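TL;DR need structure tokens for one chain.
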Amino acid sequence: MSDLELLTQSLARNVKRWRTERGFTLEALAARAGVSRGMLIQIEQARTNPSLGTVVKIGDALGVSITTLLDYEQGPRVRVVPADQAVRLWHTDAGSYNRLLAGAEAPGPLEMWDWRLMPGEGSPSDPHPAGTVELVHVLSGELTLTVDGVEHLVPEGASASFEADTSHTYVNKGGVPVEMVMAVSVPLAH
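>> reply
TL;DR here they are.
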């Protein structure tokens, strides 16, 4: 692949990525940058080599440098979190805990957690911001999930999703530890 093709593809990927990260529609970015929507579509589909002036306008509108827009070394960013670097934020003497396994901005915060709840233990949570969603997958045991005062049983192998902008509690009423993985998506603060 030629340098020009690499740059065209990098520009396409990076403009789309930053436009999405900033929450701009094609129309909004076109208006901010002073370029046509058609030109943006061609750039994002790697079908044109825009002038440097056009790239500068798009970079300014997105609040990123030309270097960032043309950087083909970056590619998709992958961040591996070693097991010993997972952050334990809560634990009990009996052995219950949660660990933040990974997080990202997508476009608001997105987190993945590893939980263990020992028999008879639980963890209450205050309501999160409106629009927050939690996904729970039970690896072993049976979780009693209470959302807004209503109990839901989530057995081993089952998953649950819920809007977490109301009070909720995770409890293990069984005789064996509950092991579960949870993802939390928080909307972008405005």
